[in-house]
Amino acid sequence: MSDPNTKHPPGDYTASQERLSKVARIDGFSDEEEGHESELSMSPENPRVQRYLVAIEYVGTRFFGSQQQPKDRTVVGVLQEAFHKFIGQPVKICCSSRTDAGVHALSNVCHVDVERVSKRKPGEVLPPHEPDVVQKAVNHFLQKNEGDVMVIDVRCVPSNYHARYKAKERTYFYRMLSGLDPLSIFEKDRAWHVPEELDLPAMQEACRVLVGSHDFSSFRAAGCQAKSPVRSLDELSVTEVPSTPYFPSLTESTWSNPNNGDPLTCSSQTKTETAGVTTNGEAFGIRRRHRCYVVTARSRGFLYHQVRLIVAVLKCVGTGELTVLDVERILKAKDVSAGKPMAPASGLTPAPPPSFEAALRFPFSSSLGVCYRTTISPLYCSSDIVQPAPVITAWSEFAQNVSGEWDGFGADFSREGHPLELPESVVPEAYREWEVKVFDWQTQCPTLAQPHPQYTFLYKSIKLLPTVGCEADAATRHSVDQRSIGPSALSFSYSVSGSYVAVWRPLGDSQLLEVEHCLVNPNDKESRVRIFQVVETRMLSLRSFKVFRELWYGPFRDGDQLGGCATRSSGFASTPATPASAVAGSWRAVLATTSFHASDSGCIQQFTGEKVVEIVREEKDLLLLPQDLWCSLQDGKDGERLFSVGWLFEPGHAFTSTCVFSSDSKLEEVTMGRETALTDL
After folding, report:
1. Is 593 helix (H, G, I), strand (E, B) or coil?
2. CA dihedral sign of residues 475, 481, 486, 492
3. Separation CA 410–CA 584 (nearest Å)
4. H or E stretch at 433
5. Which is catalytic among the residues 100, 407, 440, 628?
6. Across-strand partners of 157?
7. Which residues make Cβ contacts (< 8 Å) with residue 504, sequence separation at least 6?
8. How many whole angstroms separate alpha carbon 630 and alpha carbon 167?
9. Crossing angle (nearest 10°) for helices 306-319 and 324-333
10. Strand, helix or coil at 280?
């Protein structure tokens, strides 16, 4: 965002160059540069909170951007004030896209959390307001605040539905008006006035250079916090449109006054004299002649000020100051100084196609009911699914639910369950000076599973060097552990929900096995844990643990983007361990199973069956971990060893998995179960 104490007119090109270095992290176009949202906005399903999905339009001229700021007028600040006046209490708002000062929006989407607790009767949960009531009431208060924001649509969504993370792509329009005449007052702050003529074919050819996946370092402003400059520009085009979008075109019309004899009557004669004023070739009073060009940019996410920097280069191509070869040179330079000063904000608009999904495509069904990523499986059932899943194979369904960018935090634990500090060599100097112990890595896990041409499953477990402050700054990889189904995978058991259990043999060490348990939260399909049990095969004993808590950040992009602060999670290794009383005792479990019969060969199997059993979990067998997690190692019949993990995803309800090894270290069986404490039945 620009310096909030400085305002620049739309055509102030020098000022736009100055703005390049006056950016702040709180505003921008990059979906990677979003900060932590409130605890409320990240909460799982909460019956006391109603979340509304709200589409808004606004004129950005009088705003210092969309994101709330303490002292300046912002879009979110004005919207929060209107909701507060309607609801009578503060609300939390999160926008799917943040816009800079002076940028307008035909449709920006946000979610708003409203508590439904009665003030008159404490504890009573009130029914939610109908969406049309919300829209009318909030607009009533918005019109009293200069009227430059309007709510254009409202829908009720679950409280774990997030406006930003559900956005699949973003589209921006940028308007340029070419011509010597001054802009109409109706175009003030709505377009960039370019006096020179623009070469449309040349600009279109330059667009083709930039479309696709590139390192856009030359098109991101100073202060950009994105981990990677690589972006996939799905569409970049320049088209000519009518120059007067707000009114019918008048430049070719003949004005006629119905009051005959009026001295201001105009005619279409080639040469007309009116009150001593002569106009050549057009009617009196209609002298502005501009050609309007619209730049359309579409991508899942943009770098900070990327669109305006691209527009500046396209404009220079149009005027002849740059050539298409120059655009290629600027792109390859990977340096923002190689380009041109940034285009002004006033011509930029987050703009929708002619549908509700707008520039931000949300996964709605045709009736605009919410569709979740996962569907019904033997291990997960939900009444929230609004339409039946298409008939697909189990592996295809698993692939759909497991694939994507998973960001979070990870930590190593000793065999006793104690967190291990990170090596001193990777800990920032400030932490060492403050004697702060660091246990957690920020992590990425880009995962891809495909059913064709054969079963494919691979992921990269990436550890990032810790930083002081927001982890979105963590751009340096410490290590990458890449795995795929192949010789190193002795077995792979999966559920269509996206959960799986894999037994891996570390390369170069035949004395160890790694048992990976990946459990997806039954209440939140975009949240999961992965627990690695490192097993010494000779004695079938535990050597150590690795634990990862991850959240789904977006479709698979091979780790080229980092959720950063927006991962909605934080380090956990040093938090209190799960209390034994919450885990020990009698439980009823519904188990699904895969059987391997001591096979040495790599094998992929789906969990099947629903066997109901009752188990007693004793405290002495538990190794308690933080975040409602635990592990256990038990002896079975005939020398078997049972390696188990569990996740107490809500009080009295657990998700568990167990690998059974024979006395000669052969995998026999893997089970995955949903458990309920018998005291809760």
Report:
1. strand
2. negative
3. 26
4. helix 429-434
5. 100
6. 51
7. 483, 488, 489, 490, 513, 514, 515, 516
8. 35
9. 150
10. strand
| Domain layout of the chain by residue ranges | 37-157, 168-248+292-366, 394-680
Least Cα distance to 450 among 414, 508, 497, 396 occurs for: 396
Using an 8 Å Cβ cutoff, are 150 and 140 in contact? no
656 Cα distance to chain centroid? 29
**37-157 and 168-248+292-366 share one CATH topology?**
yes
Compute the C-alpha angle 19/240/242, nearest 5°.
100
The Cα-based distances of 473 to 223, 439, 464, 466, 560 in angstroms read: 11, 18, 10, 9, 14
For 287-440, list the strands marked E by DSSP: 291-299, 348-350, 404-414
User: Running DSSP on this structure, what letter comes out for residue 440?
Assistant: -
CATH of 168-248+292-366, one of 1.10.10.10, 3.30.420.40, 3.40.50.720, 3.30.70.660: 3.30.70.660
148 is catalytic: no
The DSSP symbol for 231 reads E
Helix, strand, or coil (residue 16): helix
User: Running along the chain, 681 residues long, what does each successive block of 10 average in pLDDT?
Assistant: 36 33 31 36 64 88 78 87 83 81 82 77 74 85 83 86 77 86 78 90 92 88 77 89 56 38 35 45 61 87 85 92 92 85 74 38 30 25 29 79 91 93 84 82 90 78 76 63 79 94 80 94 93 91 93 80 53 90 94 74 80 92 94 89 95 95 89 88 49
Class of domain 394-680: mainly beta
Closest by CA to 351, choosing from 535, 109, 542, is: 109
Structure tokens at 473: 């700054």
**Taking the model in full, what pTM does it have?**
0.46
SS3 label, residue 638: helix
Tell me which residue of 113, 97, 4, 116 sits closest to 56, measured CA to CA: 97
Please give the Cα distance from 333 to 347 (Å, whole number). Answer: 27
Q: What is the CATH number of domain 37-157?
A: 3.30.70.580
Instruction: Enter the DSSP assignment of 581.
Output: G
Dist. CA 382–CA 385, nearest whole Å: 6
What is the radius of gyration, based on Cα positions, of the chain? Answer: 30
Across 422-562, the runs of DSSP E, i.e. the strands, are 441-450, 456-464, 477-484, 489-494, 500-504, 512-520, 527-536, 541-554
DSSP three-state, residue 36: coil
